[in-house]
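User: Could you walk me through two proteins back to back? I'd like the raw sequence and the structure tokens for each, with a short line separating them so I can tell where one ends and the next begins.

Assistant: Of course. Protein one, sequence then structure:
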Amino acid sequence: MARAVHALLLALRDLPQPRVLRILAQSLALTLLIFAAAGAMIFFGARWGLAHWQWLGDAERDMAGVLIVLLLIAGSWLLFRAVAIVVVGLFADSIVADVEGRHYPAAAAQAVDVGWRQNVALTLASLGRLIGGNLLALPFYILLLVTGVGTVLLALFVNALLLGHDLEAMVLARHPDRPRFGRLARWSLGLLSAASFVVPIANLLAPILSAAMAVHMLHLRNGDRHL
């Protein structure tokens, strides 16, 4: 965990860098646009379906509309993270290359170029794990609602496992000769990343921050010189 915290602190120092800020602005704008569009499509699509098949009266449809909005708000964390993962996947290699080039130039010189096809494949695999893992955990999320905090804690645990795996795969794509992270290191990386998605405002920075943190985790573990 200490190495993950160290990587997080180094990643926080990377955020003010001009190129990182530019990637952050681009990815955030695209994420919010897709997020808003997806939410609007779900809302109006559900409203249209209820009106088209006339399952409910006017008053009931209005109540259903309110319920849909509440469900969208409740599911916004998962929806935002899913969209953010897709968008950051498009910029992942740029983020990793920038952090490596500034802090670990010797390792960056030996890195393998990751093409857009591999980026897309990694992104789709990550999205599939996110949706599948959380759907499998959904019955337990519902059961733990009565505990107040159980659902949040389980969601953090599940998504820490998923994110740790995804972030590891992202950085190892450029360094396929490096060994995988240990279980504790991978889970620690995923836990800090998952926690950053929960905190308001910080969740907007979480995708870029997580990518930078994964880079530092990889190179700190291998003893690469940090500049």
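----
Protein two, same layout:
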Amino acid sequence: MNKKYRRIATILAVLVAVTSGLMGATVAAGGTGDGAGGLESEGSEPDRSRSEIRYTVKSGDTLYQICKDYQVSLGQIMRANNLKDNTIFPDQSLIIPAVSISPYGMVLSRGDVSREDIKLLAKLIYAEARGESFEGKVAVGAVILNRMASPGFPKSIREIILEKNNYVYQFSPVQDGSINLEPDEESVKAAIEALMGRDPTGGALFFYNPVVAKDKWIKTLPVITQIGNHVFATKATKV
């Protein structure tokens, strides 16, 4: 898996939680509490370390929205940056205090994975695996990220999910429109787990339900494992 995406940390969980509106994340607009409101995902270790990161203000940003994105209070961020009011400017560097860091690795900047891409990954997981176990949901997300690191596939989450050959999309939820369903909380958590490097498939690049799959070719691929109703496979080895 692409090393960049192995180091995605809990802050991305906060970002997608706020974007999707599924986690019920709340921010005290003028609060002075010290809690940063870390999010723990099923199957992951609790956060064991805390640090601060810097965020460069972009055009259109508001201090309130940045607080929501990083789940810190307005009071915290104003104190950390010695701000007298909530006025901020493009290219201004802000300290984001006490951001939780996952044991999977270090925090990356928000530019590495957009909130839109994270939510799209959660949507695909929900559409493809909403009847599966949490591990099965993480596995579907892991396949997307494994493709990013493999030759022959696009190099972004969005491009992989929306890829099509001869007018047929790689993933049926994109074809039938179910990709547009709002993901549930567990699918969001599964996306975060996959982004943080968890891969129950052991490196799979394909998955399918053998009961309903009509593609004969995909059933010829070397199988790595089966999780729930999905078989996970890799590329055929050339001889």
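The chain has a mean pLDDT of 75.

Let me know if you want the two compared in more detail.
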